[in-house]
Amino acid sequence: MHSKIHASMKHRYASLLFSLALALFGAAAHAERADRGKPMNIEADALRYDDLKQVSVFTGRVVVTKGTIIIRGARVDVRQDAEGYQHGVVTAEPGKLAFFRQKREGVDEFIEGEGETIEYDGKADRVKFVKRAEMRRFRGASLADELTGSLIVYDNTTDVFTVDGGPASPAAGGRVRAVLSPKPGASAAAAAAAVPVAPAQLRPSSSTDGGKK
Q1: Is residue 60 included in any domain, yes or no?
Q2: Taking a C-beta distance cutoff of 8 angstroms, is the pair 41, 64 a contact?
């Protein structure tokens, strides 16, 4: 039977912090490191560019691609720092969620998440999902793990998720929720370990010297 772990945490006033090492999500694998050096391609209905501040504001059905990264939202503010790193803030339409997806390196797995706002830091290689945040991991087309909270931070360099439940509210209840699936093959290994080993059968001998001549 394919077991799952259900976890929940609660805090009444202060925010609730819950850190999960990516090892809990299965085999250790990194996000695609090559994505950091790939160009950022953006499609939108309109663009406003401020050359002095090096800020571009894209609005209207915005789609961003950067290597294996895919980002969608109603508005995307992109800033490039002096070192050439790109930083983006994605805002969803009212009542909807912005979207982020990225492949994990070396395996057929994807990380995707949603939030009312998504912050992408190209230099720190970090993504933040803000308000009504969700994070999912897929093995191929199958959903493996899922996290929900008020704020989720995904650090690509350390492979750590940080989930903040936020203050208690009728909608979220100030809780972090996680559904984590075991690694492939874990159930089979556990079942094999649980199979009892039959004791050795001893055959009686009719002679006192064990049958030796």
Answers
A1: yes
A2: yes
Q: Look at residue 96 and tell me if it is in a domain.
A: yes
Full domain range(s) for residue 178: 5-185
Q: Return the structure tokens found at 15.
A: 């925010």
Q: Is residue 160 one of the residues assigned to a domain?
A: yes
Q: What is the pLDDT of residue 12?
A: 33
- Per the structure, the count of domains in the chain is 1
Cα–Cα separations (whole angstroms), residue 64 to 16, 48, 177, 190: 31, 16, 29, 43
Distance CA 36, CA 134 (A): 23
Predicted pLDDT at 9: 40
Please tell me the pTM assigned to this model: 0.69
Output the domain CATH number for residue 181.
2.60.450.10
Give the CA count within 13 Å in the CB-facing half-sphere of 3. 8
Separation between Cα atoms, residue 147 and residue 163, nearest integer Å = 8
